[in-house]
## 1
Amino acid sequence: MNALLGSLVVLVNLVTLCNAHCYIMPNPNTPGDLFNECKDLTGVIHPLNSKWKTEYCEECYCDQDGISCCNIVATPVSYDTSKCQKTFNKETCSFTVVEWKNPGKSCFVGGWVL
């Protein structure tokens, strides 16, 4: 019972902190046209129903309506900013939080926001 209650508390906090940044780029609407590909902002063509990650840490998906993209970076919140610093790794699209004086030591993070 305690495990179930603990899981619910974690889930509620995760949903509360989740605020993903997403956007949609619709395909041009021409009556009768059926799209089998999408063109992203950089001009790259993606096949219908494909998924990819961008260099800006977004996950995108191409469907009949166009491209939808969402940020996949979880940003740390509720940590001791006077003692700790967050560092972004672009290759892994992730933050780490370490002590200012001892960068080899991780800091406690109270939550993450998408």
## 2
Amino acid sequence: MYGSAGGLRELRPAVLAARGFAVLSLAFFGYEDLVPDLTHQLDTAYFQEAVDFVLHHKKVIKNGVGVMGFSKAGDIVLSLGADIPEVKAVISLNGCVSNIFGSMRFKDGSVIEGLYGDNSRILITPEGAGDGTHLVNNPLDYPKTIIPIEKIKCKVLWFTSLDDKNFRGTEMVQIIKQLLRERNPEALEKYWEFMEGPNAGHVIEPPYLPYTSASYHRLVNGVMIWGGSAVDHSIAEVKLWKRIQEVLRQELIPAE
């Protein structure tokens, strides 16, 4: 799943499928009959249906599923790891520990509120593009928005671009570690892996695609910069792509 631009994107799923994985590319807003924007509440039951659909396919190993999300979807996959037992691997790419924008309803009826930001904190570069580094509010100031990550009982690969101009990634890692030390320190050591991309920007894709330093973002109706440098960003994508495949194979393919 991708981020706050909405719709359906099949690039990363297609490349994974070419390497032997059964992959479902899933839209969650802004597509056909789904909610039009992220101000609406999402529900883990919708994602449970997708998990069930994949696991009932006759050519899919029934050992569980992995979920991977970029940007806004990075928080969704954390919620799925905490609420759907069939999820056996969570990969969050430049995501957030809070539920961004609209709320998320869990299967037990509890609701995680949405974390918003302030567009006035977007810095305008000399070229006229926006820098959203400080756009989103601090999760610790809004505890009801924080996903119960202590409930996740599977492998979590958390990737942070160190020059991300969309989320303050290093602060997010600090918050995650602080929360887990308070709530479930064993889980921090047992399940979580933190990976960094030095001088990489926000928009992480499979390797060897053109580096994207800035692009139009329809959520803010303007051009946003994403950070990073072409060389370092590309190196990070190559290393991350290798690790993603390793994690999925280790966690989803049963030992012989």
## 3
Amino acid sequence: MSSHRRVWYPYVSPFDPCPPIKAKAYSTPPSLFLGYQPPNLEQFTPMEALKIGTLWKVFYDPWYSPYEVSTEEDQS
């Protein structure tokens, strides 16, 4: 499974008065890579779905700050 984390390298001006942020990370939604919703997808229970925000497990994306380690990276 591919990572939903992407990195963007913005232009750094030599005249910028602030220290530059050379790499910016962002998260892409899992639905971007699915194309269409196939039938019979695995679902969360109704209570879990209310807490998480989606009914289907393939659409769930836990967002992690770039400064913390996700459990997905720990298992690799």
